[in-house]
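Record 1 of the preview.
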Amino acid sequence: MTKVLRVVGPPGSGKTLLIVSLVEALRSRNYRVATAVKREAIESSLLDPDVSRQLDAGAIATVISLSNGGRVTLERVMPLPGLASVLASIDPSVDLLLAEGFDDPGYPAIELLAPGDHTTETPNDDLLAIVASNEIRGAFETFGPGETNGVAELVEREILSTEADVTMQLTINDQPVETFGFVKDMIARPILVMVEQLKGVDLPRSVRINIRRRTRD
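->
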């Protein structure tokens, strides 16, 4: 599954600035990053005119920016598990989804606070870091996107670990076949996404599929 990090905070706290800087910093480390933002957190000025018109008309509830620069718009707000599954199916190579404006519990979050404010809304179990909004603005204005005052390093260490989150063993005609990143992304991740959509199936830790081709006489 795609790893998810929520960026939360009051309006105008610098969530979008932090996300822009995180995307730049993590991409410079060769991570593929996508973003998602709900309607109430979207700044129309950051979007192209056509998307802005749809947003103002209420035709868009969620905007997803893919790791390749493409954009997907949804007419409804989806819970993060479903949103992560949709993203994994259309962009399976994504390493991280940065979600702005989502309050789904159970996902790590960075919360931005105004200077002097020490009251957080995020449960402690989900809280990865607290960031002062003025620090992000100052870093952005001084150094431009990509400077995160150590937040990118924290995300890399705590969320984007070097250990593979999905492993796969492939056997063809009873012979093991070595698989690398691209093959694993094209086979294992989409299968996990589809299996998770099956009724009555909880988050699967392992999936075993045996496919046999019938030989013809």
